[in-house]
Amino acid sequence: EQAPPSSNYAFYAAKRQWWWFTGATSSISSKVSDPKPVDCESLTLADGSTIPITGAGHVDVGFRISNVLQVPGANTNLLSIGRACDDGNIDSASFDRNGYRLGERQDGVPRRLHRAVA
C-alpha cells in the first residue's frame, strides 16, 4: 500500500505567521481572498475587547482555509482547528512535543498529511 503524500509547511500568509488554536471558534486574518459580507460586525477577544470584522473569505497556506474572518486590526493570523475540521479543510489534527500533523481526506481516503516539527 502506498503511503499518502505529505507536505511540510511553515504556514505563512500575508507575511505573518499562523497560530493554531483548538479552543478558537473562528479563524482570523487581516487579509483574505474573495471576501464576502458577514452578519457579525465585531469579534470578541479573550480579554473581552472587540475588533471589527469586515468580511469572510479564504486563505491558501499550502491548502485552503475557508470561512476565515477578515479582521484588519488582527496582528497575527489564527486558525481554529475545530472550525477547519467542521468546514472540511482538514480531517484530523494531532499534536505532540515534536510538532503537529494536520490530515486531509477525500472521499474517505487519506489525501495529504501536513506536518511541522519543533
UniProtKB/TrEMBL annotation:
InterPro entries for this protein: PolX-like_BBD (IPR054722)
Domain Retrovirus-related Pol polyprotein from transposon TNT 1-94-like beta-barrel, first and last residues per copy: 18-88
Highest taxon of source: Eukaryota
Matching Pfam families: Pol_BBD (PF22936)
The protein, known as: Retrovirus-related Pol polyprotein from transposon TNT 1-94-like beta-barrel domain-containing protein
